[in-house]
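Entry 14. Structure prediction run on the chain below.
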Amino acid sequence: MNKIIIALLLFVSTNLLAQNPFEKEILGYEKQDSLAMPAKGQVLFIGSSSFRLWKSFDADMKAMPAAFNRGFGGSTLADALYYFDRMVVKYQPKWVIMYEGDNDLARGKSPQIIAAEYDEFKARLMKQVPGAKLVFVAARPSLARVSIVDKQKELNALIKAKGDYFIDMHSPFYLADGTLMQDIFVADKLHLNEKGYVIFAKQIQDFMLKYIK
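Output returned:
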C-alpha cells in the first residue's frame, strides 16, 4: 500500500512540474517562508529573471522600505496570475512591484493580451489585498531581443496610459545617440551584468524613494 501511495505522489508531482516548470522554484520559496515568513505590509517584487538574477537585491534595498524578492526566472504575466494566491495574497504586501511582459512578447503574445492580463492581476490584487498598490516595471531592451523592441514599446505605452504606477526601464539603457548599450549584458545578450543592474536598481530605488514611505 505504501508503495502505491508513493507512486501516486510521484505521479502527481511529476505532472505538476510538467504543467508548470516554475513549481520547483515556488516550492523553494514556500519552504523558505516556512522558516522565515516575510512580515505583512512590505514591498513584494514578483517577476521573471530580471528579478530572480538580481544578486545585489539585498544590498540595493538596504536603505529602502522593507522589501523581498520572489522572482522566478522565465515567467510571464500568466504565470504570475497562476501563482497569485501562493506568491502574492499570502504575503499581504503594501506594494507589488512587477516585472513581467518581456518573456510574454518573446513567446508571441500580443501587447494587448498582456495588458489585459495586467488588468486582471490588478483587479485580483485590489480584491484580495485591499489597499495594495501595483507598480509595473517596463519591459527593458536587450541585444538578444532587438526584433521585439517595438512590441516592448507598445506594451509599455499601453500600461503607462492606464495612469498606474510605472517605472521606465526601457530608455535608461540607451546612449545619447539612441543606440542600445553594448556592455551591460552577460554572454547570452539577454540578462544584465553588474553594470546593467546598477542602472536597473537605480530606476527602482528612485521610484521607491519618491513614492513608497
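The chain has a mean pLDDT of 92.
Filed with the rest of this week's runs.
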